[in-house]
Amino acid sequence: MSTASAPVRRSPFKKWCDQNTGLFFLIPWILGFLIFKFYPFASSLYYSFTDMNFFKGIREYGIMNYIDIFTEKETRTALLITFKYAFITVPLKLVFALFIAYILNFKIKFVNLFRTVYYIPSILGGSVAIAVLWRALFRDTGVINTMLGFFGIQGPDWLADRTWALFIICLLRVWQFGSAMVLFLAALKGVSVDLYEAATIDGASKTRQFFSITVPMITPVIFYNLVTQIAQAFQEFNGPYIITGGGPRNSTTLVALLVYNYAFKENEMGMACALAWVMFVIVMVLTVIAFSSQKHWVYYAD
Amino acid sequence: MTPMKLETRHKIARFFQYFVLIVVGFVMIYPLLWMIGATFKSNAEIFTGIGFIPTNPTLDGYVAAVTQNYGGDINIWRAFLNTYSYVIPKVIFTVISSVIAAYGFSRFKFKGRDILFSIMISTLFLPQVVLNVPQYLMYNTFGWINSPLYLPLWVPTLFATETYFVYQLVQFMRSIPHDLDEAASIDGCGPVKILYKIICPMLSPSLVACGLFQFMWSCNDFMGPLLYVTTPTKYPMSIFVKLSMDGDAGFNWNRILALSLISIIPQLVVFFCAQDAFIDGIAAGSVKG
After folding, report:
1. pLDDT grade for A49, boundaries at 50, 70 and 90
2. Cβ–Cβ below 8 Å for A32 and B261
């Protein structure tokens, strides 16, 4: 090999390296994506068309899992309850978050103190400790019922009551509106004071200003909160698993919990994957709807 | 309208603002305050009233929480130790691997970058529930289930799998002017040196925020340990608290509440020490997005 040819042969490689330095930094991410995201994602879809069982393996292929999901009561109820859960939790959470952020945005004294108080539940709310607390609050002789007792009201056994249990699970997440509130507060601070001044001169009431100026100006953050909260709500697992265990009589068995039960209690992993995929498609469709509706209601300044 | 009336109206509005903030704030914080009080009450007293202050303060709950162990396998200290033995590596690896990936995405141009970036964004919308079963089967093949080193809980974070943080850091890095790297590059700094000499110091508040959030979320994580930790001696706090709650069948409430409270104290301390980092971290991440 002649010495002259070596640099000539190396230079395209070097050139390639210079052009792709960025790619070099992405190697860990690419590996992580392929191994821990893409492979599980694809094989989940594959398993969903099998009767994959942890101990027995695969014996049958087909769409039987999907047929079961849409015909059997257990899965249909879980899907329905999950929708109910999301449609109670997400709007309540966003309304509270926006309402409190709106008030905090008037030049309030101790704003940091209030912000902290409202934010603490968000940071701790995901912990098992708070789930334990929820059980203490809402048990039959719990704090809430003791409180109602002062008004002569006999409260139900919230978590054992089919009509209330789901709502109590929702409440745990609504209570954690703090992070959505912090986002709203940052957005509200960004709305130009000139707009309000102009509106006041024109004689617009505070309510009118809220709906005609404030809300339109912060629609990007409303949109962001909406999309992230919907995705989170459909994946809720800890609340029902820890607080109610899915009961009473499956009234709080959300989809994520049912997926867990299929996969890790009954070892029916094919079925679990199919159910997870149904949920995934639902979340995707809702996200796509949200994104495509953006042009009708979300205002971007630039 | 006379100026006097306007001022009265203004005062009434102010009153209502504070009134709502205080009332709602009290409702928000009440469960936590009640919980703190309840840990000092006797089991007989806990559910008899709704106040915070115990009539006969007792440390029984704490004593029981601290001394409780299940057949000598697991107790509160061990559970803490177990938790932090994977939470701390997880936090460190997440921050490092995310900043490296974010650097690759935000500071370089190369073929395929935009496609990779779109893939990264789309994984933000990928629910963990879809991945759970195959991941479990994969870790099972690796022999990682019930690994004494908690491998399934932190190894993936070496590979920037926490997309949310990668995305946040990309947003922050884009706001750092390119002139700085160019100047450094002319001075002979290589890309790696630019990352840790220039980008990382400028990003440090965001790196701290990412670390703090990952700390909170990892301490709270329940499903990960539920799937991958099955030996009682290796249980982390989240599983230990759940186990104690189930084991009690509802009579030793002061013990279980004391245990719960102790379990979140490290998180509370971290939060109060770094509140601003948390709140600014959230606010900064979304404004552009």
Report:
1. very high
2. no
With H, G, I as helix, E, B as strand and everything else as coil, classify residue A198: helix
> B208: domain CATH number?
1.10.3720.10
Q: Do the domain assignments include residue B52? A: no
What is the three-state SS of B57-73?
CCCHHHHHHHHCECCCC
Average pLDDT, integer, range A284-294: 92
Range(s) of chain A covered by CATH 1.10.3720.10: 69-297
The single-letter DSSP state of residue A61 is B
Pairs of residues, one from chain A and one from chain B, whose beta carbons lie less than 8 Å apart: 265
Question: Which residues have CB under 8 Å from B134's CB, separation 6+?
Answer: A39, A40, A41, A43, A44, A47, A273
Are A23 and B112 a contacting pair at CB < 8 A? yes
| Number of neighbouring beta carbons within 10 Å of residue A286 | 17
Q: So what's the pLDDT on residue A29?
A: 96
This model of the complex carries an ipTM of 0.89
Q: Which of A133, A179, A260 is the closest to B282 by Cβ?
A: A179
**What is the end-to-end Cα distance of chain B in Å, rounded?**
44
CB B281 within 8 A of CB B213: yes
Contact A180, A225 (CB under 8 A): yes
What average pLDDT does range A222-245 have in this prediction?
92
Contacts of B115 (CB under 8 A, 6+ apart): none
Q: Is residue B39 part of a domain?
A: no
Q: Would you tell me how many other CB atoms lie within 10 Å of the CB of residue B42? A: 16
- Report residue A187 as tokens: 């957005």
**B170 pLDDT exceeds 60?**
yes
> For residues A282 and A234, is the Cβ–Cβ distance under 8 A?
yes
> What's the rounded Cα separation, in Å, for the pair A216 and A191?
10
Q: Is residue B30 part of a domain?
A: no
pLDDT of residue A5: 46
Task: Locate B31 and state its tokens.
Answer: 């469960």
Distance CA B169, CA B96 (A): 11
Structure tokens at A165: 């249990």
pLDDT of residue B4: 63
Tokens of A74: 């257990």
Lowest mean pLDDT among A187-191, A199-203, B283-287: B283-287
Chain A nearest C-alpha distance from B86 (Å): 17
Long-range contacts of B18-21 (CB under 8 A, 24+ apart): B18/A108, B20/A103, B21/A100, B21/A103, B21/A104, B21/A108, B21/A114
Q: Which residues of A touch B38 (CB under 8 A)?
A: 136
Residue B103 lies in a domain: yes
**What is the CATH T-level fold of the domain A69-297, as seen in this structure?**
MetI-like fold (1.10.3720)
- Give the range of the structural domain holding residue B132, as residue numbers without chain letter: 67-287
Cα separation, A301 vs A286, whole angstroms: 25
Amino acid at A181: M
The closest of A217, A166, A167 to A187, measured between CA atoms, is A217
Neighbours of B204 (CB within 10 A): 10
Residue A148 sits at the chain B interface (C-beta within 8 Å): no
Q: Closest chain B residue to A108 measured between Cα atoms?
A: B18
Using DSSP, state whether B48 is helix, strand or coil. Answer: coil
Inspect the interface and report whether the beta carbons of A26 and B256 lie closer than 8 Å: no
Q: Structural domain tally of chain B?
A: 1
> What span, in angstroms and rounded, lies between the C-alpha atoms of A45 and B1?
68
